[in-house]
Amino acid sequence: MVARALAQEPEVMILDEVTAFLDLPRRVEIMQLLRKLAHQTGKAILLSTHDMDLALRSADRLWLLPKGGDLQVGAPEDLVLNGAFEHAFASEGVAFNRQSGAFQMHQDYQRMVQLAGHGEGMLWTRRALERDGITVSESARTVIEVQSDPDRWVLRSGNHSQQFETIYDLMSGIRREEVTL
Questions:
Q1: Residue 181, pLDDT above cutoff 70
Q2: Which of 59, 104, 153, 154 counts the most CB atoms within 10 A of its CB?
């Protein structure tokens, strides 16, 4: 359908959920193609999408219409910085985090750990912990050390120490309450 629209050489293309029902790599490819076409031809491409992450990463300008609110228009980064995304998507179950540029599920954090180490493992360990309602705090007594080469996770609580080979194993150990957090 996109090829058919392009063959007509329109000045403006209006597309409705053009990436719906596509897998992630194809959604990205279509958005990159549309962005490239718009920049190379100078023609406007207006599309609707529910894929906010992809819209934030590929749009030059967004029109954001929150339920019961006023239309917000601007560069994705401007809409993030002025709070439009947080306001538009505020609900009981989800919140937009402007520091990470991602949507997060609300959690009732009742446990906490310290996280030490470096690299990509830190980010993904933090995400796994938060998904399970565990917050990361410098004042926590339990420490998870993310080590690389080889990848492993060391959980220390008091005199007790355990090693895990994967984040899955770490989270399984925490869920089984082998260590009190």
A1: no
A2: 153
Fold entry, domain 2-105: Rossmann fold (3.40.50)
**Averaged pLDDT for residues 167-177:** 89
**Stretch(es) of the chain classified as CATH 3.30.160.150:** 111-175
Please report the beta strands in 106-151, taking only residues with DSSP state E, as ranges in sequence order. Answer: 111-117, 134-136, 143-147
172: which 2 tokens?
């399984």
Structure tokens at 131: 């998904």
Q: Which fold has domain 111-175?
A: Double Stranded RNA Binding Domain (3.30.160)
Task: For the beta carbon of residue 143, count every other beta carbon within 10 angstroms.
Answer: 15
State the residue for tokens 């493992």.
121
The per-residue pLDDT for 91 is 81
What's the pLDDT score for residue 24?
A: 94
- CA dist., res. 80 & res. 153, Å (int): 34
Is it the case that residue 178 has pLDDT exceeding 70? Answer: no
- pLDDT of residue 78 exceeding 90, the answer is yes
SS3 95: strand
Instruction: Return the closest-CA partner of residue 33 out of 75, 74, 3.
Output: 3
